C-alpha cells in the first residue's frame, strides 16, 4: 500500500518536471556557438563535480577504513643462495650431492626412480651440522667458517649381506669428497639392513605383494566387509592396509603386521579385525611370505587355509554392518548440540605496530632473544645457538624422539611400540594452516627434504613463527591499603614468540612448540591431537581401554563393527645443551627436606618445623641420572661456577619438567631403543659423537638398538666444570575415551618443559619492556579526604603507544593452503 502511494507521488513530480520547459518563454535567441560553449562548460563542470565526488568518497573511505598495520621489524625470508652455518640443505645443494654421488662409479648407486629393494641407492640426505668446537672457534674468530657438508644415508640392498651406510659429502657447494662415516656410538656396525626404516620403494613392493597375497580372500573381504583390496573405488569400497611396528619380536626380524581398515575419513577408527603378517626381510620380494593371518579373532598361518575354511564355513564369520550415515562418526563433519554454539568468529591476534620479531633467513631475534632454527629430516625442527640479552644460554635445544608403547590383546596392539624418529619427524611436519594451526599473522617458512625421492621435495609453510598474547599478565600487582583503598598498580601482558611445527605420524598429530618468553624463560611444549589408533573390539581389548564406537545397528551379542581405544604411553625426549655464559657448567640439585628447630625468638621452648634445602653438585654422569621420584622434591640447576650476577650468586638456568611420566616399561624388550625413558632427566658431558639419543634405526630393531642412550652414561664421565647436555623425558599415559572421537583435544594433553633463568640476571628482564603499564596517584601524597577521586591517577606506559589500534592486521588467507608436498628442480 505504502509503495503504491509513493509511486503515485513520483509520477506527479515527473510530470511537473516534464512540463516545465514547455511553459518557459523562448524570447532570447542564443547563438549556436554560445550554446556550444555553454554545453562544454556544463560537461566540464559535471566531470569536475564527478571527480570531486569520487575524491570526497575516497577521502571518507580512507578516513574511516584503517590501513594495514605496518610490517614491523624485518623478515627477509629464506636466502637459498647463501646458506648460513646452521641453515638446512638448499634444494640446489641436494641436487649437487645427488649428482655427485651418482657420478661416483665406485659407489655403484642406482638412481632412485630405477631402484628396487635389491639396489644401492640414496635413501635420505640432511645437513651435517658442523661440530660444536669448530662453530665456537669460528664465532670467536679463531677459525675459518666451517664448511658445509651433507650426511647421506645409503641403502645397500645389493651387497652381501645387505646393509646401510652413512656418508659425509662436502664441501658444499663445490663437492670434493665423500667419506663413509661410522658414528662411534653406533652399537651395530655395519648398520643392519633389517633396522632401516621402510622406505617408499619397499612400501611399493609390499603393496604389490599384498595385492597378490590377499587375492584368495577377495570373497571374504566382499562378504564380510563389503570391501575390496584390488580394483576398488577409493572412499567407497576400499579396504586399506596400514603397517605397524616393531617388525617382529626379536632382533633381526622384519615381520610386519598390516591392519585392515575401511577407507573412509578418519579410517583409524574403522579397524576391521583383519590383520596379515608378512616376512619381508629378504631383498628379493619373491622370498617374502605371509607368516600369520588373523580374521575375527582366529589365527591362521596361510592365506589359503583361511580362504578354504571361510569357504566351507568351518570358522566364525563376521558381517559388520556400517551404514554411510553412521560411518560419519569418524569425520570432522559438524555435529552435536548446535544450540550451545554462538555462530560468531573467535578472537584473533592483532599486532598494531607490526611484528616485534625479526627474521633473517633462519636467524630470529625477539626482545633480547636470538637463535637459529633448522629442520632435520629425521628429528624435526631444532633450535641452535640461543642468546638472551647478548648472553649465551644454549647451544642446542631439540626434540630427539617421540614414542608410544601400546597394550592390548589383539595381535597388532599387543606388539605395538612406535618410534617416531624412524618415521621421520621432520619429513612428517606438513603444511600449517594460517588462522588455525598458527596465528594468521604468523611468518611461515618452507622446508625442503630429500628422502624417498629422486629430487628435493618442498614442504610449503611447514614452520611458523608468531608472537602470541597469552591473555595472562606476565606480572601484575594491585597494591592497596587495608580496606581496599587503591595505592598503585603495575602490570605487563605475557607475550611470547612461538616457533611451531606440527608432526603428523600415523593417526596422531603432535604440535611441537619452542616458546621464548619475555622473562628469559624458554618453554618446550608438545600438544597431542589427531586420531587415536583404534583396535577391533571383540571384547578382548576392552580391559586395555574404552569402546569408542559401535556401528549403529550393532548388538552386543552379535558380531558387528566396533572400535576400542587401547592404553598407551606417549614419551618425548629432549636434548638441551645449555651453555650458561660459556660451555663450562655444573649441575646442582636443591634437595628439599624438613628441619625441626628450636625457635630462638620464643625462649627455646617451641619447635618450628619448616622446609629447607641442601644443594648438591653432581660430579659424574651416573649420579646425574634422575629417576622418577615423587618422594624427593628437587630443583635442577645448571650453573656457571665462574659467572656471577651482581649479588655474587652463580648465574644459572633451572630446568622444570611439568610433564613427568613414570616409565613402568623399563624392562620390556620393545623399549630398549628408548632407554632414555628410564630417566626423567640425565646430564652427560658433551661429546660430538653423542649427537642424538635415538636414531632412524630405532624402530627397525628396538631389541638390539643401533643407538642405546643408557650407554652415554656408562662411562661415568666427570661432569663438573665441563660442557653439559641435559636430556629430559616427558610424557603422558593415554587411555582413549569417547571424547577422543573423532580427535584427541589439546586442552588437557600438553607436555611442557621450562628452562627458566635462575640468578642469571639481576632482576626480571621483562622490566625492560616498554609496553608495560604503571598506575599511581598523581599527587604523590595520599589524601584520605579525596575519597573515590580518580582524577589524580597517573598512567605510565613508557613510550609505547596505547589505545585502540588504528590499522587492520594483514593475515595469510586459508586459501593459500595447498596440502600436498611438491617435488622441486
Ligand atoms: C632385483 O629386484 C628386481 C625387482 O624386484 C628384479 O627384477 C631383479 O631381477 C632383481 N635383481 C637381482 C640381481 O636380484
Ligand atoms: C624440639 O625438637 C627436638 C628435636 O626433635 C626435641 O629434642 C625437643 O624435645 C623438642 N622440644 C620441644 C619443646 O618440643
Ligand atoms: C626392572 O628390572 C629390575 C631388575 O630386575 C628391577 O629392579 C626393576 O624393579 C624392574 N622395573 C620395573 C618397573 O618393574
Ligand atoms: C662414577 O665416578 C665417580 C668418580 O669418578 C665414582 O666416585 C663413582 O663411584 C662412579 N659411579 C659408579 C656408579 O661407578
Ligand atoms: C585533600 O583533599 C581535600 C579535598 O579535595 C583538599 O581540601 C585538601 O587540601 C587535600 N589535602 C592535601 C594534603 O592535598
Ligand atoms: Cu595417545
Amino acid at each position: 500500500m505504502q509503495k503504491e502511494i509513493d509511486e503515485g507521488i513520483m509520477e506527479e513530480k515527473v510530470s511537473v518536471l516534464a512540463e516545465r520547459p514547455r511553459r518557459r518563454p523562448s524570447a532570447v535567441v542564443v547563438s549556436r556557438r554560445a550554446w556550444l560553449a555553454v554545453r562544454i562548460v556544463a560537461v566540464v563542470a559535471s566531470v569536475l563535480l564527478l571527480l570531486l565526488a569520487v575524491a570526497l568518497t575516497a577521502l571518507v573511505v580512507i578516513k574511516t577504513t584503517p590501513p594495514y598495520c605496518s610490517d614491523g621489524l624485518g623478515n627477509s625470508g629464506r636466502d637459498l643462495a647463501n646458506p648460513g652455518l646452521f641453515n638446512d640443505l638448499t634444494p640446489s645443494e641436494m641436487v649437487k650431492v645427488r649428482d655427485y654421488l651418482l657420478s661416483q662409479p665406485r659407489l655403484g648407486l642406482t638412481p632412485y626412480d630405477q631402484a628396487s629393494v635389491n639396489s644401492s641407492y640414496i635413501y635420505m640426505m640432511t645437513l651435517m651440522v658442523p661440530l660444536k668446537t669448530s662453530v665456537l672457534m669460528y664465532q670467536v674468530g679463531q677459525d675459518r667458517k666451517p664448511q658445509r657438508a651433507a650426511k647421506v644415508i645409503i641403502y645397500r640392498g645389493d651387497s652381501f649381506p645387505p646393509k646401510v651406510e652413512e656418508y659425509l659429502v662436502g664441501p658444499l657447494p663445490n663437492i670434493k669428497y665423500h667419506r663413509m662415516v661410522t658414528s662411534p656410538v653406533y652399537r651395530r656396525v655395519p648398520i643392519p639392513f633389517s633396522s632401516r626404516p621402510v622406505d617408499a620403494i619397499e612400501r611399493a613392493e609390499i603393496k604389490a605383494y599384498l595385492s597378490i597375497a590377499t587375492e584368495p580372500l577377495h570373497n571374504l573381504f566382499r562378504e564380510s566387509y563389503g570391501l575390496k583390496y584390488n580394483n576398488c573405488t577409493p572412499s567407497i569400497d576400499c579396504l586399506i592396509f596400514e603397517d605397524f611396528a616393531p617388525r617382529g619380536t626379536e632382533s633381526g626380524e622384519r615381520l610386519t603386521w598390516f591392519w585392515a581398515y575401511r577407507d573412509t575419513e578418519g579410517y583409524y577408527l574403522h579397524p576391521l579385525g583383519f590383520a596379515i603378517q608378512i616376512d619381508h626381510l629378504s631383498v628379493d620380494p619373491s622370498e617374502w611370505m605371509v607368516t600369520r593371518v588373523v580374521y575375527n579373532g582366529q589365527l591362521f598361518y596361510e592365506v589359503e587355509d583361511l580362504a578354504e575354511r571361510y569357504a566351507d564355513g568351518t570358522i566364525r564369520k563376521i558381517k559388520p554392518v556400517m551404514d554411510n550415515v553412521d560411518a560419519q562418526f569418524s569425520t570432522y563433519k559438524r555435529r552435536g548440540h548446535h544450540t550451545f554454539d554462538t555462530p560468531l568468529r573467535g578472537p584473533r591476534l592483532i599486532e598494531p605496530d607490526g611484528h616485534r620479531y625479526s627474521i633473517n633467513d633462519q636467524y630470529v631475534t625477539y626482545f633480547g632473544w636470538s637463535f637459529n632454527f633448522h629442520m632435520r629430516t629425521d628429528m624435526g625442527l631444532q633450535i641452535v645457538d640461543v642468546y638472551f640479552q647478548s648472553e649465551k644460554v644454549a647451544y642446542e635445544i631439540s626434540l630427539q624422539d617421540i614414542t608410544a608403547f601400546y597394550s592390548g590383546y589383539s595381535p597388532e596392539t599387543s606388539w605395538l611400540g612406535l618410534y617416531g624418529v624412524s618415521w621421520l619427524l621432520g619429513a612428517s611436519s606438513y603444511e600449517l594452516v594460517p588462522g588455525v594451526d598458527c596465528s594468521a599473522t604468523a611468518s611461515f617458512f618452507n622446508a625442503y627434504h630429500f628422502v624417498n625421492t629422486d629430487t628435493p621435495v618442498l614442504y610449503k609453510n611447514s614452520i611458523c613463527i608468531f608472537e602470541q598474547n597469552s591473555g595472562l599478565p606476565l606480572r601484575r600487582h594491585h597494591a592497596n591499603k587495608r580496606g581496599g583503598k587503591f595505592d598503585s598498580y603495575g602490570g605487563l601482558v605475557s607475550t611470547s614468540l612461538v616457533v611451531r611445527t606440527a608432526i603428523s605420524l600415523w593417526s596422531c598429530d603432535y604440535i611441537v612448540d619452542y616458546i621464548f618468553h619475555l622473562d628469559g624463560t624458554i618453554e618446550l611444549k608438545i600438544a597431542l591431537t589427531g586420531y587415536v589408533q583404534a583396535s577391533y573390539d571383540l571384547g578382548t581389548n576392552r580391559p586395555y581401554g574404552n569402546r569408542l564406537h559401535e556401528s549403529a545397528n550393532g548388538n552386543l551379542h552379535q558380531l558387528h563393527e566396533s572400535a576400542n581405544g587401547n592404553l598407551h604411553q606417549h614419551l618425548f625426549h629432549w636434548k638441551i645443551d645449555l651453555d650458561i655464559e660459556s660451555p663450562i657448567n655444573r649441575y646442582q640439585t636443591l634437595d628439599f627436606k624438613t628441619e625441626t628447630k628450636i625457635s630462638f625468638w620464643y625462649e627455646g621452648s617451641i619447635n618450628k618445623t619448616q622446609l629447607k634445602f641442601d644443594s648438591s653438585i653432581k660430579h659424574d654422569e651416573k649420579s646425574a641420572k634422575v629417576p622418577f621420584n615423587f618422594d624427593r622434591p628437587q630443583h635442577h640447576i645448571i650453573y656457571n661456577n665462574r659467572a656471577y650476577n651482581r649479588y655474587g650468586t652463580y648465574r644459572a638456568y633451572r630446568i622444570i619438567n611439568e610433564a613427568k611420566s613414570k616409565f613402568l616399561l623399563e624392562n620390556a624388550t620393545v623399549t630398549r631403543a628408548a632407554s632414555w625413558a628410564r630417566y626423567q632427566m640425565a646430564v652427560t658431558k658433551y661429546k660430538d659423537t653423542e649427537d642424538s639419543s635415538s636414531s632412524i634405526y630405532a624402530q627397525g630393531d628396538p631389541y638390539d638398538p643401533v643407538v642405546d642412550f643408557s650407554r652415554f652414561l656408562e662411562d661415568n664421565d666427570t661432569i663438573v666444570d665441563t660442557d653439559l647436555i641435559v636430556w629430559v623425558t616427558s610424557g603422558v599415559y593415554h587411555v582413549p575415551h569417547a571424547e577422543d572421537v573423532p580427535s584427541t583435544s589439546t586442552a588437557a594433553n600438553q607436555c611442557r618443559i621450562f628452562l627458566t633463568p635462575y640468578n642469571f640476571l639481576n632482576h626480571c628482564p621483562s622490566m625492560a619492556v616498554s609496553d608495560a603499564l604503571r598506575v599511581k596517584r598523581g599527587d604523590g601524597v595520599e589524601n584520605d579526604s579525596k575519597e573515590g577521586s580518580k582524577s589524580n591517577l597517573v598512567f605510565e606506559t613508557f613510550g609505547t603507544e596505547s589505545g585502540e589500534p588504528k590499522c587492520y592486521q594483514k593475515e595469510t588467507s586459508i586459501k593459500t593452503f595447498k596440502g600436498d608436498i611438491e617435488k622441486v628442480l
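Residues 596, 598, 605, 607 surround 2-acetamido-2-deoxy-beta-D-glucopyranose (ligand 2) (CB under 6 Å). The longest strand covers residues 457-481.
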